[in-house]
Automatic annotation (TrEMBL):
Keyword tRNA-binding recorded: no
Region span, Disordered: 16-45, 91-118, 301-328
Pfam families listed in its UniProt record: Creatinase_N (PF01321), Creatinase_N_2 (PF16189), Peptidase_M24 (PF00557), Peptidase_M24_C (PF16188)
Keyword terms: Hydrolase, Manganese, Metal-binding
Assigned GO CC terms: cytoplasm
Keyword Disulfide bond among record annotations: no
Domain Peptidase M24 stretches: 456-667
One Gene Ontology term of the molecular function aspect: metalloaminopeptidase activity
Protein name as it appears in the record: Creatinase/aminopeptidase
Creatinase N-terminal domain sequence ranges: 122-246
Cofactor(s) for this UniProt protein: Mn(2+)
Length: 754
């Protein structure tokens, strides 16, 4: 799924290699590894069900002169573009903008209204609490997307930003003042946020010229402002930078004792109570005790050198002077604190059911050189898991005990190593004398897959591809037979095919099933009520993947069930050329994803086209579908064993969207030369879903690119034939769609490989 790496994150990531997370935490654009759509908090009685439809009015965002309009029946909200307030009014019926104005509009066939949350009462209650805060109250209150673990994906009970604003996208931050409300999000969610936010909100489209991220915008507020945020919901480094920048303007960052949104969230969903389970070593390749010992070795390596001991005074020293006092050695790190849910799950070989689509356990972990303590709701720990944890020398304490444990320094003397992404509340509890900042050792280890994990990924991607091919064959037959299949129905049927696979746990993220204009929304998610019918006129985009015990899958293919137009074929071919360029890349060891990113865009740039999301992200091993620290667009060196997606795209707003995504493994390759003594790296492709050749405009491809397509599809068929042999419809489909190309004028199909 398409991640988002804004330009300012790429710049900041150059400051320190090894992690992008601190830069990401400085903005509302939470993507290290960037985002699949998340399930909405539909358990709140007062919140409306979010309905998306391809017939909703789409808002242009690229043209500098364009202003954003909303579907008929809704008033204009406030829209910030290029730093200027373009339109503002109260919530209520309005007439659409006249086409004679300077605005560019997209006219749908039949606009459908979208019910929005009325945030008026919630904002009023929040502002009352802001005024009641000590020392004159708060002028601004920041509500991020993240939870107390800086998670990209969160449990329904932690979706505070969604509750207060109604915006359900997985990435974004809102800031409420005494009389205004501001929402910040990136290009993946411009249209969605415009649809979901009511007239109380000003939308800041971060990434457009002149539009600041929230962390920069808040610095420009009036001098002397008091800015509040829950210290659990902001990363350490982000809090330090923000506090310093506010102080320079005589403003102050404060941390209320309680979360103000929680106080007004009367129907807040209960905290998740999913059971913890063990992931067997046959999937992980390494036991928890072995992984913990690696962490302990790293902790010992972080100890500062012992200062030299002065044994006698220099010859020219004063004989009457007192001997120098012995130098007190600095306090050495003796433990590491882990707040990342994915890191905890990986290092302990446990998984859970606390976060939709992500097999995570809400917990904290404290690792010393002798033991490990897991802070978790004990109700989730079965006797079997308790026995397993004890066998790995891991003790269990209640989740809420972590704060008193840190405050009292129950481990004794010595400092604690914390990652800059650790919630700032942890730093406040430890105080500066008790912690040392260090990039996460576990995050880096987790990103380099071991041989067992890599083989698991290969197997999982083959099974997932077989399910997709069988489903594509079914869908093709249904549509060509005259059936009207909605985006939502197609996605549900795909899940059924995946459920037939072994080791299937669930979906890796909410299925992106998009036809027509909806495919131009990178993170569109169809609902049963508002889904569009999949047509034979526009490309159909599906971005989905299964969670398997042996791997997390993420695949996007764009297909056509009729005859693609010349414009659609050209766009598809340019995207495909970028996809091929990344797939075939060979590069010296030490090369970063950011250095390769241009390869995916070069063919699009030739035609003056581009895409705003990231080109690719890391993937966890039966963990999060987005994983750092590496990614295309990120200044972190790619390492052997990293898994990364390759997903360029193109989106024509109001018309169609194209994206092609495969997962790759970084591997060592053999080259003729060894310039500078470097090792040279390349990619192995995991994804086994073929490319639909009738979408390709063959005359645009080079001879080498044509050969790549042919070899790619032959490899897919060879790998999948044994897995789909029982499904004759799938066998016919994969041979037809992966070997023939079509003309845009619907004359017919012809072979065209030379």
């Amino acid at each position: 799924m398409a991640p988002f790496y804004p330009s300012f994150v790429r710049k900041n990531s150059l400051k320190r290699k090894g992690s992008i997370s601190n830069d990401r935490s400085l903005s509302s654009l939470n993507n290290s590894t960037n985002e699949k759509p998340s399930a909405s908090v539909d358990t709140i009685a007062t919140a409306s069900v979010h309905k998306k439809s391809s017939l909703d009015t789409l808002r242009p965002s690229a043209n500098k002169s364009a202003i954003n309009i909303v579907p008929p029946g809704f008033g204009w909200g406030k829209v910030i573009k290029e730093g200027k307030l373009l339109s503002i009014s109260t919530f209520g019926p309005k007439q659409p903008v006249s086409p004679t104005s300077s605005a560019q509009t997209q006219t749908p066939t039949s606009p459908t209204s979208h019910k929005r949350l009325d945030s008026t009462a919630r904002l009023a209650s929040l502002r009352e609490l802001m005024r009641a805060e000590p020392d004159g109250g708060l002028d601004y209150y920041i509500i991020p997307s993240e939870d107390a673990h800086q998670s990209e994906y969160t449990a329904p009970s932690d979706r505070r930003r969604e509750f207060i604003s109604g915006f359900t996208g997985s990435s974004g931050t809102v800031i409420v003042s005494r009389n205004e409300a501001h929402a910040f999000t990136d290009s993946r969610y411009f249209v969605q946020a415009s649809r979901e936010l009511d007239g109380n909100w000003t939308l800041h489209k971060v990434g457009l010229p002149g539009v600041l991220p929230w962390s920069e915008w808040i610095k420009d507020r009036p001098r002397g402002s008091r800015v509040g945020i829950d210290s659990r919901l902001i990363a350490h480094e982000a809090a330090v930078v923000l506090s310093s920048s506010l102080s320079s303007r005589y403003s102050k960052l404060t941390f209320p004792r309680v979360n103000l949104v929680d106080k007004i969230w009367k129907a807040r969903p209960p905290k998740p109570q999913g059971a913890v389970f063990q992931l067997d070593v046959r999937y992980t390749g390494k036991s928890a005790s072995e992984k913990l010992e690696d962490v302990r070795t790293w902790i010992r390596s972080q100890r500062p050198p012992t200062p030299p001991v002065v044994t006698k005074a220099p010859k020219d020293s004063n004989p009457d002077a007192k001997p120098p006092s012995p130098v007190k050695p600095p306090m050495a790190p003796v433990a590491a604190f882990v707040s990342s849910l994915a890191s905890i799950a990986w290092v302990l070989n446990i998984r859970g059911n606390d976060v939709p689509f992500n097999p995570l356990v809400i917990s904290y972990l404290f690792i010393t050189t002798k033991q490990a303590i897991l802070f978790v709701d004990k109700a989730k720990i079965s006797p079997e898991i308790a026995t397993y944890l004890k066998s790995q020398n891991i003790s269990v304490r209640e989740y809420g005990d972590v704060w008193s444990f840190l405050r009292r320094a129950e481990w004794g003397d010595g400092k604690v190593l914390i990652d800059p992404k650790t919630p700032y509340a942890v730093s406040l509890m430890l105080t500066s004398s008790r912690y040392t900042l260090a990039p996460s050792f576990i995050e880096k280890q987790k990103a380099v897959k071991n041989p067992v994990e890599l083989q698991g990924f290969r197997n999982a991607y083959a099974r997932d591809a077989a399910a997709m091919v069988r489903w594509y064959a079914w869908l093709d037959e249904q549509i060509k037979g005259g059936a009207q299949i909605t985006e939502w129905e197609a996605a549900e049927e795909l899940t059924k095919f995946r459920e037939e696979n072994g080791d299937f746990w669930g979906l890796a993220y909410e299925n992106i099933s998009a036809s027509g204009p909806n495919a131009a929304l990178p993170h569109y998610s169809a609902t049963q009520e508002g889904a569009a019918i999949i047509d034979i006129v526009t490309p159909y985009l599906n971005d989905s993947g299964g969670q398997y015990l042996d791997g997390t899958c993420d695949t996007t293919r764009t297909v056509h069930f009729g005859f693609p137009t010349n414009e659609q074929m050209e766009a598809y071919t340019r995207v495909l050329q970028g996809h091929i360029a990344i797939d075939q890349a060979i590069f010296p060891e030490g090369t970063t994803g950011a250095q390769l990113d241009v390869l995916a865009r070069k063919a699009l740039w030739k035609d003056g086209l581009n895409y705003l999301h990231g080109t690719g992200h890391g993937i966890g091993a039966f963990l999060n579908v987005h994983e750092g620290p590496h990614g295309f667009g990120i200044a972190v060196p790619l390492e052997i064993g990293n898994i990364i997606t390759n997903e360029p795209g193109f989106y024509k707003e109001g018309s169609f969207g194209i994206r092609i995504e495969s997962a790759l493994v970084v591997k060592r390759v053999t080259t003729k030369g060894k310039f500078g003594g470097n090792q040279w790296l390349g990619f192995e492709r995991l994804t086994q879903v073929p490319i639909q050749t009738k979408m390709i405009k063959m005359e645009l491809l080079t001879k080498e690119e044509k050969a790549w397509v042919k070899d790619h599809n032959i490899a897919c068929r060879t790998r999948l034939d044994p897995l789909i042999a029982h499904d004759k419809r799938a066998v016919r489909w994969i041979r037809r769609e992966s070997t023939k190309s079509g003309s845009s004028n619907a004359v017919g199909l012809t072979f065209d490989w030379d």
